[in-house]
């Protein structure tokens, strides 16, 4: 069975086509910088030459259309027709309390995902575009959805409730859901293998640091806390999102600047974070480049980003009463040696002995960047949300026959 996985992030769309029988990847690729001046398309057919293009791609529907063209292309393609794709698995960011597990797509499921648009305005609409575009391109092919929120459903009420009137939870389900769950789950399992210790006895802090960023406190393989909240806006500073701030700022700024609810929402989700502080870019590569060229605002944005992450690591070590390993993953966590260094060199109080040389090595392998003597291991583990989604999709589709 061939399963196509579509992971529509806020600024990127990643895809992988898996042959499930031997867990092989027939092709993978990504469309990055969707909606920016130029998007970057990378398509890697297994055993074939990598294909790159830079073109304007303004939204996710066009991105999927391009992916479909590439997968069936006479030169760059890996299947002769779309009928060689047996199932499609989608990443959906918000599943609310309704979805504790992955499900096959039907009208009810689509309705529920739409109902959650308000709570994940950058993500659920992108995922829905993906589902609709895939249905149009591959009619009759079963589709499954895998939710970012599902893994965090193990949190206790002490972590998922906000100290506000409890009627808000009862009436409107106002609570912490947490996101990037598929990634936090995957890297925590890989971390246990890399450390050679049972997951059941580990306390981990996993840092999924991409365009969206969150960390999670994981005890014995179960999420006990995570930095994103009811929506993916809370927690760490991100590319375009503010993360934590004093909630009183919202009504204050709305009054002073005469902003509507929609405008203030858009300000915090799309016009804050690295982009707002640096005035340069929401992309960490460009921030680091500008910082190294001496730009003060880029340096401030970088320092704030690292400082806020360091504070969460401290908070989660306290929350779990200890930590065995800190894991970095996603675009920035996997690739930015500068950011990892800025965070980890000041964790000596926790017992982290950072290995700056190991950290500086560019690699796509799972690796340790703390010294052998470090009391707390620091790991870099490339995430693989797509493989987890493919497995869930495969299992659901098997259940159909
Ligand atoms: N070599 C690199 N150095 C620093 N940052 C990088 C590098 N490669 C990618 N990134 C950063 O990773 C982020 C995107 O991460 P990603 O996980 O792909 O995001 P998302 O899935 O949320 O769209 C961007 O800020 C990008 O600059
Ligand atoms: C939930 C979330 O923020 O996702 P992403 O990192 O893909 O934007
Ligand atoms: Mg992502």
From TrEMBL:
| Cofactors, names only | Mg(2+); Mn(2+)
Annotated GO biological processes are: acetate metabolic process; acetyl-CoA biosynthetic process
Protein residues bound to ATP: 14, 208-212, 283-285, 331-335
User: Which positions bind Mg(2+)?
Assistant: 7, 385
Which Gene Ontology terms of cellular component type are present? cytoplasm
Report keywords, A-Z.
ATP-binding, Cytoplasm, Kinase, Magnesium, Metal-binding, Nucleotide-binding, Transferase
Instruction: Answer yes or no on keyword Aminoacyl-tRNA synthetase.
Output: no
Q: What is its EC number?
A: 2.7.2.1
CDD domains assigned to the protein according to its UniProt record, in alphabetical order: ASKHA_NBD_AcK_PK (cd24010)
Which residues does this entry assign to the site Transition state stabilizer?
Answer: 180, 241
The catalytic residues are 148 (proton donor/acceptor)
Cite the Gene3D superfamilies for this sequence. 3.30.420.40
What EC class is this?
transferase
Q: Which reaction does it catalyse?
A: acetate + ATP = acetyl phosphate + ADP
Give the cofactor note.
Mg(2+). Can also accept Mn(2+).
Pathway stated in the Swiss-Prot or TrEMBL entry = Metabolic intermediate biosynthesis; acetyl-CoA biosynthesis; acetyl-CoA from acetate: step 1/2
Q: Where does substrate bind?
A: 91
HAMAP family, A to Z: Acetate_kinase (MF_00020)
Regarding protein family, the annotation reads: Belongs to the acetokinase family.
Subunit-structure text: Homodimer.
This protein's name: Acetate kinase
Where does this protein come from, organism-wise?
A: Paenibacillus whitsoniae
Gene designation: ackA
